[in-house]
Design brief:
heterodimer; A: alpha+beta; globular
Chain lengths: 118, 259
């Protein structure tokens, strides 16, 4: 799984119980959720929203960087070299996640998002 | 050189400032210490990302935008301390949030928040307390203000939506009893109460080791305060299923990320 991945306890539609879920995000968008117990997953086709969101993030990035620099100059400066290297890879992984989930959603449900069990 | 008019204006301003400081305000308590069963390295769901911010920061932001709310208290788990600092530093701009660590149960967490506010409640500085579940990130400032006004007027207020799809099972466990329309509501949060009776009820509940299901159940048992319901909001649902996160994200996107 690519993009930002979080794990949290949520109630699974299939299991009907509170189970550990894996949630994959691309920017502000939740792209895939998977129940780690039964494998039930929701994949969303968010390509158009993602492109809009990416544009928004790029436009707002200088302001956000400036705010961080003002608040935590040392932390910001020390994280900059790593971020400069890692950020392009993160972006590529997000794109792969979004387009991969879209392909999965299209296979099962041409209309939008799909739910899939394993 | 200052004229007598300037002095009079300054005096009036000072008096008004004193009155404003003395005017009681409400406290918003956001509960983010839910017990939820845990098996691994998963995070508390109230810190999950939602439309670019963590779930809990949407609620904190909504409370901060209600002018009558003078203090916002976040009840967190000690193990979430790092995340709490991160959220407050990055996502909650312009709001002073006081952090209290919660207990084993929701009621204990609420009691700790009330004890944190106790001196201000005793002094009459805090007149009303609103308790909100952080797993309901889409609460609007309008609903918070509505609950607050109703609680100040009547003593207690709970938001809810009419539950027309609920039937009661009779005493024999088989017969269904029809509910008259509007007789049952699905309760939401924030639930608001006058501060002093609320604190007294929770202290008494602690002494008697009573454990209620929510704030209202504790108040019903230990206080005679009348509790009114105000119409809740469809969007003020609790994040329970993964799909709820998708709906919440869509609601926020449709509202251009402003509730």
């Amino acid at each position: 799984m690519m993009g930002t991945v979080e794990h949290a306890m949520l109630v699974c539609h299939d299991c009907g119980q509170e189970t550990r879920h894996e949630l994959a995000y691309a920017g502000r968008l939740l792209v895939v959720t998977t129940c780690t117990r039964c494998g039930n997953s929701i994949e969303r086709d968010v390509r158009s929203q993602y492109l809009r969101d990416l544009r928004h993030r790029m436009v707002s990035k200088p302001g956000r960087m400036l705010r961080r620099l003002r608040r935590h100059p040392v932390g910001f400066a020390s994280s900059l070299p790593r971020t400069t290297v890692v950020k392009p890879w993160e972006l590529l992984e997000e794109i792969r996640l979004v387009w991969g989930a879209a392909a999965g959603a299209r296979r099962e449900d041409p209309g939008g998002h799909q739910q899939r069990g394993t | 050189m200052a004229s007598s008019y300037d002095f009079r204006v300054a005096e009036r301003k000072a008096r008004r400032g004193w009155r404003e400081r003395r005017r009681p305000y409400a406290a918003g308590v956001v509960l983010a210490s839910g017990a939820g069963s845990r098996v691994g390295a998963e995070i508390n769901k109230v810190y999950l990302p939602l439309a670019g911010r963590r779930l809990v920061s949407w609620s904190l932001g909504a409370f901060a935008r209600v002018p009558e709310i003078g203090v916002v208290v976040l009840v967190a788990r000690p193990q979430d301390g790092e995340l709490v600092n991160w959220v407050l530093d990055r996502e909650v701009d312009g709001a002073e949030v006081e952090v209290v660590y919660g207990g084993e149960t929701r009621q204990e967490s609420e009691l700790r928040a009330l004890r944190h506010l106790a001196s201000r409640i005793d002094d009459g500085v805090v007149d009303t307390v609103l308790l909100h579940d952080a797993a309901r990130p889409l609460v609007s400032p309008a609903l918070i203000a509505g609950v607050l006004h109703s609680a100040r007027e009547h003593g207690g207020a709970i938001p809810g939506l009419p539950a027309e799809d609920i039937v009661e099972v009779g005493a024999d466990g088989a017969m269904l009893t029809e509910q008259p329309p509007g007789a049952v509501i699905r309760a939401q949060t924030p639930q608001g109460f006058r501060a002093a009776p609320l604190l007294a009820a929770y202290e008494q509940a602690a002494r008697e080791e009573f454990l209620g299901t929510d704030t209202a159940s504790c108040m019903e048992r230990f206080s005679a305060l009348p509790v009114h319901w105000v119409r809740g909001e469809q969007q003020n649902f609790k994040i329970t299923y993964p799909h709820d996160l998708v709906i919440a994200e869509q609601v926020l996107a449709a509202a251009e990320y402003q509730l």
